[in-house]
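Record passed on here:
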Amino acid sequence: MYGALLKFGWKRQIQYRAGMALRLAGDMLRLYVKGCIWLALLRDDFRETAAYTLASLMLLILTDTRISGELADRVRSGMIAVDLIRPVSLKWYFFFDQLGENLLRFLAEGAVLIPAAVWLWKLPFPSVQSICFGSIAAALAVVLCYSIQYTAGLLVFWMKDGTYTRMMTDSLFTLFSGLSIPLWFYPPWLENICRYLPFRLTVYEPVCIWLGRYTDAECIRLIFLELGWLLVTAALQRAVWKRIGAVLEIQGG
């Protein structure tokens, strides 16, 4: 079932080749502009920062999700009633459908962006250990990011609109995940706040593992920390679902 959803999302993304081409062009421009900015600001540490920018962009493609908007649309239309009686988890139904699209974008854009960035800025290659640990951390980051977005998206059952939850989660990820700026540039007080939140585990920490900034022991600790936060979000989702059962109101349909 989940494999079929993954395949369906992949095929749907293939159908919109023009959209993929435009996104690729936009991501190439974003990567180039950011690289130019870092090159101007950080002559000495540019290669590591440029590698961080590239890796964070690729991870952003994998973690992209529209679950908040999807839930809002289905609650308003009443289609959520159909979703709830399907013989498949609502959470994983959306996850694998979205993952199919993201994987195709990752492969298609990565085949262009990664070689271009490595050639243009002479970026360093990660070690085998960094690739192994980083890939595990990135896979968990994809699930953790989606779980956080899904948990926030469930609030639509009360708010009836996913706009605010999406704005809220996007702002939190932008500020605390290290998506736009590596957290090592943050002031110490703000970096300490980030360490107590799960958002850094979705971008900053997996990328730092890829860059070889951590020892093997630290990599293993971060992976277990990701697993811990996945358990926390799962517990929050169960608690929210119990409340949804009492207040669910199907509109339209």
In short: The CA atoms of residues 156 and 164 lie 9 Å apart. The mean pLDDT is 80.
